[in-house]
What does this fold into?
Amino acid sequence: MKPKISRVLICILVGIILLGLTSCGREAGYNIPIVCGETNMNNACGIATYGVNYYNLGVKAGDMAADILLEGADVSKMPVQFDPNPALSVNTAVAEEIGFKIPEGVLAKVTDDSTLDVTRVDSAIVSSGGDFTVGILQLVQHVALDEANRGFQDQLSVRMAAAGKTVTILSENAAGEQSNNITIAETFVGMKVDLIYTIATSSSQAAAAATEEIPIVFCAVTNPIEAGLVESLETPGRNVTGVSDINPVADQIDLIAELLGKEKITIGLLYTASETNSEYQIRLAKQHCEAKGYSYVVKGINDLNDIQNAFIALKDVDAIYIPTDNVLASGAATVHSINIGGQ
Amino acid sequence: MLDTLLAGVCQGLIWAVLALGVYISFRILDFADLTCEGCITLGASISALLIWKELNPFLSVLVAFLAGSIAGTVTGLLNTKLKIPPILSGILTMISLYSINIHIMSLATGTGGTANLSLLTFRGNTAYAQVASLLGLGRVYSSLIFGVVVVLAVSGVLYWFFGTELGCAIRATGANATMCRSQGINTDLTKLCGLALSNGLIATSGALLCQYQNYADVNMGVGSIIIGLASIIIGETLFMKFQNFYMKLTGVILGAVIYRVVVAFVIYSGMPSTDLKIMTAGIVTVALALPTIQKSIASSRLFKKARRRENGRREGGGENG
It folds into this structure.
């Protein structure tokens, strides 16, 4: 049966009307300055962020290990820590696109190197027979993870030297083969080491599976809750605690205030509702906003299709903060195009 | 020392199930199947997902076996029906399993792109934990007993299966496919069955491994085919006298256990962490070279003996003269 010409015409007409409607519905652009929780996402849609430095994470972990070994700190009550000295980076391209001028004061604080200055005390590390034995389990040879290992050893040596103690460090690397994770972890348990330092998620999980008694300090784990390592970031609840490589939330909020250059601000907090990690960061952000007296609007999305609606809800805020969030990170380009009003 | 040894044996028993699976495809069926690396992760992620959904952990191992069989069947179909070469069919299934495994793990968390699924929050609900609480023993000893039971059961079933008509047909397919076809055996079907069984076992090993180490990770399969092959070859070389089928299976199991114990001792010996792989390779090489070394020692001894005898005869002759 041939389609009637009138029917074809009607179809075309309806199509044109729909197209017109969608283009009318398109906003001219929000141009809200965004601060993202991590550098990669910030490169796509944000104007400035603090990035983590893995050497610093290692230093922090070394401090925690020293607290556990020297002062007998209770692992189950030691909160998960973050980068003590994150590096500031700005994205001038996006700032220009949304017509935002980054203050000179912030630009002046941009550094190429935020690495903490720790001088290793070689005499505190002995090859055998130290006061303490620490096993290091690293997943793979990798620049960031190697830095986390170096920072840990440096800081631990400093703390040990200060206390007049020595430590034997057994550093093992699974060489990227996860089957070695559990082998190394169980070997450490068999050797009855005093503490296990694990670098990367799967290595930390293997160590946690191998022992429920020996203290474990992890590093370079983005989401310790989802990884099952800790019950909550405030109180880990077991023999496992450590340093997460998620971004420093309070610093990011302060950065927003600094960028805007005024005291009375409203910050939009945009995140994916289903991600426990993001939810925790948003909780921290809210606490910090309340402490500093900033007002905030929270908007949780379910998937990338909700971004448009989220922007409508957040259109009056001075700036938006997006935490380390898998869904939003995957849709960073979408966030940017909606923000500048493109398609 | 003892703990390290026993932990190595525990892991070896898990890898023995994988080695048996690899043995079926590589040795019995003579099919270089690379599905393994994806399949072990498939078993792990299926098992982890089901434990997240609060299913019985032992049942989750069975489901993992079935899932692995399906993956093996896909490889088999690619090879037999679409005539894709064995290695390539395996690689195709392996790489597609990467995406599938992430989807499976995402089902548990509800967020897309989950590449690592933890069982630490469900640590009381793994097969190993349940066996431990049932027997009232520590982690190492209960895992050892459970591992031995599983490996005995698997190898027992395999021994029985390869004695049945279908099992014999699978063995014959690997030995001489043309002859098989002339006997009226459908070699496509036997290949499919063999690959399904092989990958089912590999997935079972993955499920056990994930419950043992309390996590499934999309990259956990990396290097597993090497471990499987090394186990088989170590077993075959060290136990060359094992000629009948059950003894051959035993050789494979012992090979896997020896491999893991060797790795554990390489780590225990405290060598620099960058040298783990070369040390492991070195020790495996020694194991493989042992028969040759033994033979050359034996022959040189024989040579010396012969010379001594000749010298003795000459000296004796001198006395006589």
